[in-house]
Amino acid sequence: MADQEKNRISVEIYGNTYKMVGTESTGHMRLVASIVDDKMREIRVHNPSLDSSKLAVLTAVNTVHELLQLKEQVEKLEEELKKLKG
Predict the structure, then answer these.
(1) Could you tell me which of 23, 83, 1 has the C-alpha nearest to residue 9?
(2) What is this structure's pTM?
(3) pLDDT digit string, tens, across residues 37-85
(4) Domain residue spans of the chain
(5) Quick one: angle between helices 52-85 and 26-46, nearest 10?
(6) DSSP state of 22
(7) What pLDDT score does 4 carry?
(8) How far apart are CA 50 and CA 14, in angstroms?
(9) Cβ count near 10 (within 10 Å)
(10) Residues with Cβ within 8 Å of residue 11, at least 6 apart in sequence
(11) Would you state the pLDDT for residue 2?
(12) Torsion angles phi and psi, residue 2, rounded to 5
């Protein structure tokens, strides 16, 4: 991974500009930033009194929760696939 070229872009998330650096495509990094921005704005609608720091933490908590749910779904599907193959 150290040999891979790193892409650098500026993105805007919830009104703030951030520099992103990664080996993924700039399109992928922009999509990630866009999804984070959308989630923060979605959560803000239901929690208008939150400051941006608390909003960011709540967004992270919700995103990790969704990630764990997806991992559980993948594990269940992999188990089903093993049963079908075996």
Answers:
(1) 23
(2) 0.84
(3) 999 999 999 999 999 999 999 999 999 999 999 999 999 999 999 999 9
(4) 7-85
(5) 120
(6) E
(7) 83
(8) 13
(9) 10
(10) 17, 18, 20, 29, 30, 33, 34
(11) 57
(12) -65, -25
DSSP label at residue 23? S
Amino acid in position 85: K
Cα 34 from Cα 37, distance rounded (Å): 5
Amino acid code (one letter) for 72: E
In tens, the pLDDT along 7-21 reads 999 999 999 999 999
Burial class (CB in 10 A: 0-12, 13-18, 19+), 57: exposed
Number of helices and strands in the chain (H, E): 2, 2
Cβ–Cβ under 8 Å, residues 23 and 4? yes
- What are the phi and psi torsion angles at 38 (to 5°)? -60, -45
Burial 32-49 (b: 16+ CB within 10 A, else e): ebeebbebbeebbeeeee
Q: Give dist(CA 27, CA 35) in Å, integer.
A: 12
